[in-house]
Amino acid sequence: MSRLTLARSAGFCYGVRRAVTMAEEAAQSGRPCVMLGHIIHNGSVIEQLEKAGVQVVHSVEEVPTGAAVIIRSHGEGRAVYERLQERGAEIIDTTCPNVSHIHRLVSQAEEEGRIPVIIGTPTHPEVEAIAGWCRNPVVLSGPDALENWLREHPELRTQPITMVSQTTSTQKKWNLCVEKAKKECTNLKIFDTICNATCKRQSEAQELAAQNDAMIVIGGRDSSNTRRLTELCAALCPTVCWIERAEELEPSNLYGKASIGITAGASTPGWIIKEVYDKMSAENMEIEESFAEMLEKSI
Ligand code: F3S
């Protein structure tokens, strides 16, 4: 018999819940609409929306005439909005308000003649979208990249710089960047734009990983925040299973584990967490009293 505990923060964050609700409402309205790219990083949710009639298109040119366009929670660059407006498309903007806030910060920084420096993964859609609100963005993956950039451009140390972070960066990476930038740059504005929901989810996952014999991390393979949760758990717990759906879970891998923690990425819907819960319950697990309450909150 194993004891099963669910992280309080498992599953949809506020921004993802808002995006999915807006897309579902658009689908129910019956008017033609498409999503421009996957609105969140979860294949099962996208599949459900497609079944409800909202198809995925990958470029503005593919948007059918007369269709409303759902902009994904990670946001898009300014040029995408302009091209959609030129085509007269109705925009349903599910960009997380925390991300829109960063768009405003970098765009205003450039208007004031400052250099926007974005700390984040250059290929992440959120970072690409933030960069898309600047004419000359500088995207740096972390403290080493920042150091190299300042070494290659020593003249910029006295220039006005505004530094922001990808919402899902780690606090450790950001703090190192801030420390370095403060030491080297003389005209610096810093905005800590890391999302609290991410910090909370990561620290709860680490807490659970340290207390349990095994961890199950639920989330899409293309979800970088789920990947990060898995890495953090693996550093503290000997057995970590990253699954996208319940059917991938092999209970025999968990036999003999006295305690098992479960967490889920920000794009994982509650119904998938419930599927995992049902599968584990069927295996005669002892469920923590708070589990049902947590599960209800995440659905
Ligand atoms: Fe928004 Fe934070 Fe979620 S930025 S999409 S609430 S992880």
Task: Walk me through this protein's architecture.
With 299 residues, the protein is of the alpha/beta class. It folds into three domains: 113 residues, Cobalt-precorrin-4 Transmethylase, domain 1; 82 residues, Rossmann fold (3-Layer(aba) Sandwich); 93 residues, Cobalt-precorrin-4 Transmethylase, domain 1 (3-Layer(aba) Sandwich), CATH 3.40.1010.20. The chain contains eleven helices and 13 strands. Strands 11-10-12-1-13 form a five-stranded parallel beta sheet, sandwiched between helices. A four-stranded parallel beta sheet has the order 3-2-4-5, sandwiched between helices. A four-stranded parallel beta sheet has the order 7-6-8-9, with helices on both faces. Helix 7 links the parallel strand 8 and strand 9. The longest helix is centred in the first third of the chain and has 16 residues. It is flat. It starts with a strand and ends with a helix. The mean pLDDT is 93. Bound molecules: FE3-S4 cluster. The site of FE3-S4 cluster has 13 residues, from helix 1, helix 4 and helix 8.
Give the name of the CATH superfamily of the largest domain: 4-hydroxy-3-methylbut-2-enyl diphosphate reductase, catalytic domain
Average pLDDT, to the nearest integer? 93
Q: Assign the CATH topology of the largest domain.
A: Cobalt-precorrin-4 Transmethylase, domain 1
Strand content: 15-25%
Tell me the number of strands: 13
Could you tell me how far the N terminus lies from the C terminus, measured between alpha carbons in angstroms?
A: 26 Å
User: Low-confidence parts lasting 5 or more residues at pLDDT below 50?
Assistant: none
Level-1 CATH class name of the largest domain: Alpha Beta
Number of domains: 3
- Heteromolecules bound: FE3-S4 cluster
Shape: flat
The whole-angstrom Rg is 21 Å
What is the H/E order?
EHEHEEHEHEHEHEHEHEHEEHEH
Helix-strand makeup class? alpha/beta
Named CATH architecture of the largest domain: 3-Layer(aba) Sandwich
